[in-house]
Amino acid sequence: MIEHSYLIVLLPLLSALTIFFFGRYLPLKGAVLGICTLGITLIHSLGIFSMLLQNPSYITEISIPWFRFGIHQTEFGFLIDGLTALMLVVVTSVSFLVHVYSLGYMQDDPRFKRYYAYLSFFTFAMLLLVVANNFLQMFIGWELVGLASYLLIGFWFEKTSASNAGRKAFITTKVGDIGFFLGILSLFSLLGTLNFAQVQGRIEEGLISANTAGIIALLLFCGAMGKSAQVPLHIWLPDAMEGPTPVSALIHAATMVAAGVYMVARSYFLFQHGPFSLEIIAWVGMLTAFLAATMALVATDIKRVLAFSTVSQLGYMILSMGVGGRAEGMFHLTTHAFFKALLFLGAGSVIHATHTNNIEEMGGLSKKMKLTFIAFTSAWLAISGIWPFAGFFSKDGILEATLNSGNSFLFWCATFVAFLTAFYMTRLYLLVFIAEPKDKEIYNHAHESPKSMTIPLLVLALLSLVAGFLLEHSVPLLLSSQALPLNAHASSAHTYPHWLVPAISSAAALLGIFLSYLIYWLKAVSAEKIASTFSWPYRLLLKKYNFDEFYIYCIIKPADWLAQKLALFDTHIFDQLGVDGIGFLTVKLSQIQDWFDQNIIDNLVDIWGKLSLLGSSILRKFQTGLVQNYILFILFGFGLLMVWQLKINFIELLR
Amino acid sequence: MVSLHHYLVLSAILLIIGIYGVLTRRNIIGILMSIEIIFNATNINLVAFNHYCYPRAIWGQGFAIFVITLAAAEAVVGLSLVLAIYRNLKTLYVERINILKG
Amino acid sequence: MDLVFYLIALLLLFSSVMVVTQKSVFTSALYLAVALSMVAALFVLLNADFLAAVQILLYVGGILVLLAFAVMLSSVEQAKRETQVNEQWLPSLIISFGILLVLLVSLKRSLFLEAGVQKNHFYPTTEKIGHLLLGELALPFEVVSLVLLASLVGAILFSKKEKIDG
Prior knowledge:
Number of domains of chain C: 2
Distance between the termini of chain B: 57 Å
CATH class of the largest domain in chain C: Mainly Alpha
Shape of chain C: globular
Helix content of chain C: over 70%
Order of helices and strands of chain C: HHHHHHH
Largest sheet of chain C: none
Strand content of chain B: under 5%
Radius of gyration of chain C: 21 Å
Distance between the termini of chain C: 60 Å
Largest sheet of chain B: none
Number of helices of chain B: 3
Number of strands of chain B: 0
Shape of chain B: elongated
Structural class of chain C: mainly alpha
CATH topology of the largest domain in chain C: Four Helix Bundle (Hemerythrin (Met), subunit A)
Largest interface: B-C, 72 and 82 residues
CATH class of chain B: Mainly Alpha
Oligomer: heterotrimer
CATH architecture of chain B: Orthogonal Bundle
Number of domains of chain B: 1
Strand content of chain C: under 5%
Number of strands of chain C: 0
Structural class of chain B: mainly alpha
């Protein structure tokens, strides 16, 4: 089974191409084909996963040579180890469920076929990224998922905001990708290989110094910052919610945005070799988690709340990586993929029912949408970190790792973020499902979604419930294959009781839920009053810390200004002086040439013509057509020739 | 005493007469006759050289025989052409035989 | 002997001039007969008896008769009325004399190795010519016979009445 792992990548590609070109002839415009393909890949992935669970050190690498520069060869290959297997399961399962879910969600869309083609294409790209055995192939997958993301964010491109959001996402991530690519280039020039195992081997041999490794790691992390929406490149993710909701669930919550985390986990040896990079990414992750969580407090668009939450959770994962909790980060990635996909799909179900995104117009939907409500509850508890839901285990792991790293500030910050998460998720939950309906019309028209949507929801709800139990020990087991030395001070700081961290995190979560309950249900403290009391921070949060404005004023406006000035320079100097001047000169020169042509060259030609006319009018007379005439000429010439040959002197002859 | 030069001068004059005939005669048959005169001038030359320079040899006369033979052949073909032309064009004047002139 | 030569030469030149200048082609043909006979006489003077006979037989008896036939087959009346000399006779005359002059000059300058001629020592040449033609000149002889054959066929072909359909 593992030998045919290339099928996992190949099948979605074939399915994407088939749907794109022949979709209209297929049942349900190709959706069935996409779902079946994904089902096969899912089963395949599960098989690989279980194989690796039994034997975590069973690493398979298949590669074919791709191209070589001198002695350096780059392959195109597949690497299947624990990390890959985990990601394979996450990607294929969420993708499969989203494929199914989209049947209901997109059923009336005019570009249904294209949607499924894109979705399959995204799955292909993501799997290519995941199974890559070298940085270059990973980068290719990385860019292809970016492309798929762009296409799907701008799927409803008739809306200006959607097409703009697509562009914003593409360009913002591209900023990070520059760093990623520079990192890859540095690796290749310094180590002469891009294969993960070889790079790791050569780094462990000490081919590059710790500082160099750290800098390269940070360059790679730039890519992760773009893709995983870390501060300051997080601005695209909230806007990316313009895409269809299942897409948000798949790409912008579960899989693609996790690619950055996966990449950090994959190249973790680099980060470890230059430990200062780990510290930096820990702080970046922390900052992201905190800022995004605070922004989520005030957002009113249901998808934007979830988007900020995603950014916050991604920051959490990066923080975990930064403090040495690689397994915990990947674990959180997995659980987060399940419950965040569930949240988005649930939100999609809600939007499908109410046709609005604004949570302040919803309310009381628990009575109308029982199944969605149950699923959403599960997701809510999971993300808030309530035992026994999945989020509890993974978040707990991260907090523990943070505490183990010895940096208590980071730990308390993370705890605070956990509190904030519980708070804003509860707010969302209450406003959408529990509170009194604010808009009667919306409430009356709301209805439960079709089965194709609710079944994936329930499956994911189940997963959110049990994933924590199932995977708590298997994830570290899977990741142990890449035997990494633990941080020096990680194990030594274990001087607290093992129940401490769970207790603190549970307390924080419960506190958040309670406060939210107080404000939004019991209305003990009015939310508006708090907003008006802290009006300055409130507005700052509403404006998302002015990141967008900052970019507009500091980067886009100056760039525009520069471009305008350059355009002026172009039109005035280059166009008028340069191009027009040369044009003017050319015209003048060609006028002179024209005169020369007309009067001298032409006349010369004419003179030749007239000369030959004259000559021929003389010579023509000789061609009489009379044979005897010709003979006369011949004899005349013959006589002259003889006179010349015999040197006859006629004067002498006469004498 | 008649020398070789007498014969050569005679044959030169005969040749010139033949050439003049070729140049001026309008009738094709006249031209053919002039050509016969030219042939005869040549034959006189050949035989005279044979007689004066190599009296024991006979090659000059042999050559003259060939010339006579070819002259006969020429006359036959030429006259048959003349008759064909006359039959088609009803004329024997060379300046009127100009159907190939553009 | 000299007198005979001059007489023959004079007659030959006169009749040749008449051949090229006579208005009537038939008269020209008759003068040509005289000229060819004179050439035969010259051959006799030059000890070429066989050649003289051939000259008479072939030229006077064969070619001339052919010419006479041709003249008579084409229209004779037409020839009498019109001029038989074209308009370039004057330049032709000048150039002819020029060439004659040149020839004479070159003859005057040239010197030929003359072997001593045995006076009045005549012996027949027919046998020697026969040996020559069928001995050393056998190949040219055969070739000439082929040429004659070809001209014969050609003459028949040309003089045949053309079919309209080709």
